[in-house]
Amino acid sequence: MTLRSRLLLAQAPLVLALLFLGATAVITLARVGRSGQQVLEDNYRSVLATQRISEQLERMDSAALFIIAGERERGMAQQAAQRPLLESELGIQLGNITEPGEAEATARLRTAWAEYRTAFDVFLQDPEPASARTRYFESLSPAFQEAKAAASSILALNQDAMVRKSDRLRQQSERVNTLMSLAVAAALGFGLFFTTSLVQRALRPVSVLSQAVRRLGQGDVEARAVVEGRDEIASLARDFNTMAERLGQYRKSSLGELLQAQAVSQAAIDSLPDPVLVLGADGELLNVNAAAEEVLRLRLDEGGDALGRVEPEVRAVLERVRAHVVGGRGAYQPRGYEEAVRVESAPEGGRWLLPRGSPVHGETGDVVGATLILQDVTRLRRFDELKNDLVATVAHEFRTPLTSLRMAIHLVAEGVVGNVTEKQADLLFAAREDCERLQGIVDDLLDLSRIQSGQLQLDLREVRAEELVEHALAAQRTLAEDRGVRLSQAASPDVDTVRVDPERLQLVLGNLVGNGVKHTPPGGEVSVHVSRSATHARFEVRDTGEGIPEQEQARIFEKFYRAPGAPAGGAGLGLSIARDIVQAHGGELGVVSTPGQGSTFWFTLPQPGQD
Asked: Pseudo-torsion of CA 53, 59, 64, 67, nearest 10°?
């Protein structure tokens, strides 16, 4: 039997109970209806007939009184009209005798009517009013009273019968109500009991199959659903058992390979000297290698918020890298050693770790996690610090003799120590330009060393933005005129002052404008624009030069980097120093460029009163 047939069969008791209840209701209501109809058939017609007979007797008596009063014609017409009606109603009563004693009362009425009719005929034959009056009181009125009393007795008999039958009908209705209530309760109880039993029996295999599925979902591949029969559930249970059996076979056959692959992959990441963490999309810790356990004190078996036990600074870095990767922005690559974070809890002392991140993709290609590698750059950072110290020392040591050299060349070139020939003057002029260029490099190196050592102190003051731009352009105007490049400026009226270190910001603007002039061909233009956003002032230096290739734009802010084809001179520090100065002011510096269409270097500064 199919599951559908079983479920339909389970509804059969309820259907039978409803049919039984309906049949009982129909039969009982039919009986009540017949009882009410019997009251109408047996008594109501007699009551109606006797009431009409009494009314017609009253009218005939009124006709006799009209005759006595001298209105003989009116009385004759009225009594003649009532006789056939009375005879008709009397015939109806004779044919509707249903109660005990009603036949005798009807015979009495018939006799009284006959006597009253005879007396009325005699009364009509007496033409004398006085004689007719005497005859009315002596014979006609007593006959009238007798006939009316007979009709009243029949009326009372039928009314009493109607009252009795109405009481019986009420009692019968009460019994019917009680019977119907019992029948409803019995039918409902019977239907619910048998329907529930049959439904439970029909669905018991579903419960067995559900428990087997739950066990299989928990990893018990030995779970089986034992369901007898040939219905759909039994067929589904057999298919489930087949699936569970094959899954068990597959697990047994591939478990060793899976465990071996897992062991190999774990050994591979454990062999890495740098800490490796695998984080889920929600930040949960999925896996770590031995180096992460040792350096960061992480354990997978500790449960809960494992990252919560990491140092706050390290955790902030890990969360930032994870958010970048999981947010769909690709792998995370650090911009430099400045992003390295120091870990003090390492066994051999403090370490500097540089974060990197790669996405972990699911079966559908979505990013479901991130693999984070904390590269140990402690030695490289120390080498970088030594290099910076060396550069700072060399630059500082160069400064004093370079100043003396510049002064000596200046004195000789000016003829203070004697006249020089034209050729000697040309050589001294070239030497003086090289000294100036070397002095600029030394100044850049000293600024860089101060920035990297954290010794850069900003003297912040309220300065007019237009004044900053004018000074920057004035410093580069001679160079621009020599190269045939126009300089221009435009400031938005809503930008009045900015809170900056004027000397440092002049260095930024001078570097950007100078670079623009150097890379703009004769006849081109370098312009400085100042505008305002919601919270920042924005400076833009636009040139009409050759532009910067896209692959070079990300590297031009690196220290000591010089783009291919760049003009000779400089150490590749200008843009790096400019970026550090702008960041020290709380702003950002960037570039927008298209090869052949010029470049726009921009930086932002917080507005006065803004965070």
From this structure: -150
